[in-house]
Amino acid sequence: MKNKFVGLLVIGMAIIIGLIVILFNTALTTIVNTSCSHGTTCPMYGTIRTQTYISVALIAIIVVIGLILLFSKEEKQVIVKKVKERIVDKNFKIKEENLKLLDSDEKKLYQLLLENKGTIFQSELVEKSGFDKVKVTRILDKLEGKQVIQRMRRGMTNVVLIKN
């Protein structure tokens, strides 16, 4: 949605710049017509033509950028969709050997992972467990050391996965 808004904004700016260029060229042509005594052979006419071509080319480039933004898709939606597909596709079983190796806090986080089909954002673990961020991070470090879980970076947080 943001790309479309920015694209429309860029196209609107290109239209405003186009209007300014038209007004400027009209005023400049009027000035050259009244002040140039050489007629159409005056070098100022060539300068006006060159400035017009350059400004039209710049406006066209700005419009193309606006159209690209207008019709492009946001990457964030694709990334979120892939993460959701992965969560739905995994089937996890409680491993007895994993539970015996864990202390009570580790078991609590492991249980939260199981309830969320083996995948959860680290920030959600903090919320659902009631532990503070530092404690959750330290517990996850221990679980990672025991090869029970794996953390993957996703934006500003981590996704915690149960290792098979």
How would the blueprint of this fold be written?
Blueprint: H1 2-35, H2 43-71, H3 75-89, H4 96-100, H5 104-115, E1 119-121, H6 122-129, H7 133-145, E2 149-154, E3 157-162
Antiparallel strand pairs: 1-3, 2-3
Describe the protein's architecture and organization.
The protein is mainly alpha-helical and 164 residues long. The chain folds into 2 domains: 2-72; 76-162, Arc Repressor Mutant, subunit A, CATH 1.10.10.10. Helices cover 71% and strands 9% of the residues. The protein is built from 7 helices and 3 strands. It has helices at 2-35, 43-71, 75-89, 96-100, 104-115, 122-129, 133-145, and strands at residues 119-121, 149-154, 157-162. Strand 2 (149-154) and strand 3 form a beta hairpin. Helix 1 (2-35) runs antiparallel to helix 2 (43-71). The longest helix is centred in the N-terminal third of the chain and has 34 residues, at 2-35. The two termini are 38 Å apart.
Any guess at the CATH architecture of the largest domain? Answer: Orthogonal Bundle
Number of helices: 7
Content of β-strand: 5-15%
Number of domains: 2
Strand order in the largest sheet: 1-3-2
Give a short synopsis of this structure:
By secondary structure, the chain is mainly α.
